[in-house]
Amino acid sequence: MVAAIILGTVAAVALRAEGGRGLGPADWAAIRFSVLQAVLSATLSVALAIPVARALARRSFPGRAVLVTLLGAPFILPVIVAVFGLLAVFGRSGWISDALGLFGLPPLQIYGLHGVVLAHVFFNLPLATRLILQGWRDIPAERFRLAAALGFAPRDTARWLERPMLARVVPGIWAVIFAICLSSFAVALTLGGGPRATTVELAIFQAFSFDFDLGRAALLAVIQIALAGGAALVALWLSPFDGTGGGLDRPVRRWDSGSAGLRLLDAGLIAAAAVFLVLPLAAIVADGVPGLMRLPPQVWQAAAVSVAIAAVSTLLLLALALPMAWAAATGARALPEAAAMLGIAVSPLVIGTGAFILVNPVADPFALALPVTALVNALMALPFALRILIPGARDIAEGQGRLALSLGMGGPAFLRLVLLPRLRARLGFAAGLTAALSMGDLGVIALFADPDTATLPLQMYRLMGSYRTEAAAGAALLLLALALAAFWACDRMGQRHAEA
Amino acid sequence: MKYLAFAAGVLTATAAWADKPELTIYTYDSFVADWGPGPQIEAAFEAVCDCDLRLVGAGDGAALLARLQLEGARSDADVVLGLDTNLTAAAAATGLFAPHSVTAAFDLPIAWDDATFVPFDWGYFAFVHSEGLAAPANFRALADSDLKIVIQDPRSSTPGLGLLMWVKTAYGLEAPAIWEGLSDNIVTVTPGWSEAYGLFLEGEADMVLSYTTSPAYHLIAEDDATKTAAAFDEGHYMQIEVAAKLAATDQPELADRFLAFMVTDAFQSVIPTTNWMYPAVTPDAGLPDGFGTLITPDRALLVPAAEVPAMRDAALAEWLAALSR
Q1: Partners of B278 in the beta sheet?
Q2: Do B3 and A205 lie within an 8 Å CB cutoff?
Q3: Could you tell me how many CB contacts below 8 A there are between chain A and chain B?
Q4: Is residue A45 domain-resident?
Q5: How many Å is the maximal CA-CA distance in chain A?
Q6: How far is Cα A27 from Cα A204, in angstroms, rounded to an integer?
Q7: What ipTM score was computed for the predicted complex, to two decimals?
Q8: pLDDT 10s digits, B187-227
Q9: Do B205 and A194 touch (CB under 8 A)?
């Protein structure tokens, strides 16, 4: 059904096409650039996330829980807000350039391919860290106890426990990040420094609104889907299907904290990641505080709309993701996930336009603006939710599935007694991510909105579009706070009984 | 199910107005914003029309036209407001628009005789900078300088397309050379005006492509006189924003009345300090204080609407080639 909704919208655009001129050399250049930056961004994000996640997994320190929550922050920011946060730190007149200036050095040059990759790593490194950290949490406490009893050095732990776990989780995470970077538009263009940094998404926008060539827009959307879907299939094919095995859910204790050198390394890694993460966020907060006092009342109203949409999206997501995760864990392995990957691979513009074409003949699109937005937001969050839920569902299927079957436990009882309690922490994380993502996404509302139903991100863009930069920065801060609060609330709810 | 409550609210609000005729206008987002011209204009027209005016934000520039093409004859829109002269030829070719019957003494730098589109405001594109900067006097001087500029992408932004036409009109066959000269001045190219202007205000560039009227916002709304626009001696390209009646409208008379209302004082006097552009017909009370301080270009450049489509594609190819090296 998910695939049908997504492909249906693309087909709707394609069917409205009249002629068109096919792909030109500029389109091919856009495809090449999109793939290049997405490969670099995904690889770098994952490569850096592994040591940070390992450090977080084997250390505990005050403020760790806050840091783990903040890991969700960059990912859920509207892109333009994050870009301005990054520029406040890394830009030509950012903090680092100012500091360089004190020593008579030229300002940092952030615009170019490296700037695009830097921004994508800022968005996705924390998410990757959080997802990989989940992988560490899934290693049963008994394994670490056994490892300690056998006198494992960190190297042995890595070989026998950590590397097999990473081999299972990393390819899927890489594929998700690849897909999301592939459809980047505003980040790539703004930080890319010029038309060299044209992505497929911009080519789609150009085909749609500059040339009104719906055929080319749909063709490009299909190419984008094929690239992301192909990456997803390869990744899933690469990752082995065996689980970590069951445990008794004891709290994990680690005996392998290792030498002082190792401790220093971990502390350094965590500190570096935290600084990279927190500085741009601090810039957003510092920029936004003065504007918070000058927010027009309509912004608060839009905030209420956004919170409502986020709540509905989250419920929709849970209703979709739980059965899909269970199906992926028990039988048809790659299919549900590949279908869900479509959600981020397909251009929001195409989904929005397609939904509009489908809805327009039967109903007033404006009356449906909010439900459609909630649904599309849930679809966009689905791949992330499945990445979070599937490994856990798989462990349950292996660990408790047969026992439940032999006890003759029916579906509802299994759901209530086994699946939900055991997936609780993951469901909380997935719900939090969806709520926050839905809050921050400009999404399809821009195509459907009339003045009464503007969401907070849309109002923020409107403020920016009419010179009110200060108020826009205030709205951005409000958005950051609301998204983080939603994320934190759901995440906490899931973890009340689990160790963070 | 909170959204049901919202939907219900929207439906009842619509039902309450059902006894009055409704005029739907598609326009760009910043026009309908609560701090834009929309609310004041809605109130002013509803005071005289005995109707319900519904302003809908439906995308900027080319996206607005694409939206209308997508909806075709089924569209709810009766009037579209916010296309510009770079789009009117393509818009007219769709056959979606009907001729107007408005006559007015337009205060435009050029003569206006379009049968379909009625102008409601206009402005000159210009590079805006902070005071104290030795601003260049033309594109050649800018290209030779070390100044950093932010511009918008012509494929996704109206001002970006305006700049493309500006350079092409002023330099013709030399335009590719001008772009090559400018390539090391361009810090980055943004998808839209908002991002570019934001980058400029954050100090990422010395100058940003905007309008000669932009400094008026800072002067009037923020009491900040430090922003000015650089006067270029090759002339400044114009943007004229227009409205038109949809041929498939179910409210043709009301649409005509709106277009006629659009060139009166009640509409035009709202424009300068909400849309920050020049009104198409100067109101009796004149322009607000602060507009007198703006630069007034000696030469207004504008490509005739009919020649835009052919020129646009050639100029875009040159731009891409020059900046993709």
Answers
A1: B122
A2: no
A3: 172
A4: yes
A5: 75
A6: 9
A7: 0.82
A8: 999 988 989 999 999 899 999 999 999 999 999 999 999 99
A9: no
